[in-house]
Design goal:
The chain has 251 residues and is α/β, with parallel strands linked by helices. It contains nine helices and ten strands.
Length: 251
């Protein structure tokens, strides 16, 4: 696409998603994400946040509209999904680590099997990434020997091992005990400071306020409001958002 804005990494236009049971999860959603931008997505349960995130790397099919990542239409039948997913890293609520593998082996697996990179090169990068997330001393530990926060940090290192253009985070701290949340958010803050493009579905309002370039509020499958963090949290111009924030921040 010769006329495409080179800063745009993600462009979604008129995206709708209806599940087989008739539930309308997304309704005519359009958004853009620029390179280096951190976008935080908040909203009540069932508002379509996670569904939207999963459509960005075709983990969920869409009913209408188009999503482009790096200028390639994600939901085009001809798209190479394996190649796409090397560019779009994803971290889920659950850690999904292979229990029989060490932390180091979990991080090495995809570059070895999918990218067919040399083992020595993959091992060196995996060790660097574990150090980056503060787990250099846990390289030979299995998931069962790690706390939830440590497992999630291994999952982040695993996603980074593919050298993605963008990282998607689907409520990455929601399955963690409260004392482990901070260690994961610190890793994410460091990635943001390094210029990693990130889309984060989160209930951590402090993180969104401190790290996001833009915060987006969803309700009933629609983008209701979006703004820079200061205006979003301190002077929201949407009654539904005011009510939501009042309930969340009160707790």
């Amino acid at each position: 696409m010769t006329d495409r804005n080179p800063k745009l990494l993600i462009e979604a236009n008129g995206v709708s998603k209806q599940f087989a049971n008739g539930t309308q999860a997304l309704k005519n959603v359009s958004l853009t994400v620029e390179r280096g931008e951190v976008l935080c997505i908040i909203g009540p349960s069932g508002s379509g946040k996670s569904t939207l995130l999963r459509t960005l790397n075709a983990l969920e099919e869409i009913s209408e509209g188009d999503i482009q990542v790096n200028g390639h239409s994600v939901h085009n039948r001809k798209v190479d999904l394996n190649r796409l997913r090397t560019q779009v890293g994803m971290v889920f609520q659950q850690f999904n680590l292979f229990p029989h593998m060490t932390a180091l082996e979990n991080v090495m697996l995809a570059p070895l099997k999918v990218l067919k990179q040399p083992e020595a090169e993959v091992r060196a990068r995996a060790e660097q990434l574990l150090a980056k997330v503060g787990l250099a001393d846990k390289a030979q530990s299995h998931p069962a020997q790690l706390s939830g926060g440590q497992q999630q940090r291994v999952a982040i290192a695993r996603a980074l091992a593919m050298k993605p253009s963008i990282m998607l985070f689907d409520e990455p701290t929601s399955a963690l005990d409260p004392e482990m949340v901070g260690e994961v958010l610190e890793v994410m803050k460091a990635l943001a400071l390094e210029g990693m493009t990130m889309c984060v579905v989160t209930h951590e309002m402090g993180f969104a306020r401190a790290v996001a370039h833009r915060v987006l509020f969803m309700d009933h499958g629609e983008i209701v409001y979006q703004d820079a963090p200061a205006a979003f949290f301190d002077a929201p111009r949407n009654e539904r958002l005011k009510t939501f924030l009042g309930q969340i921040l009160k707790n």
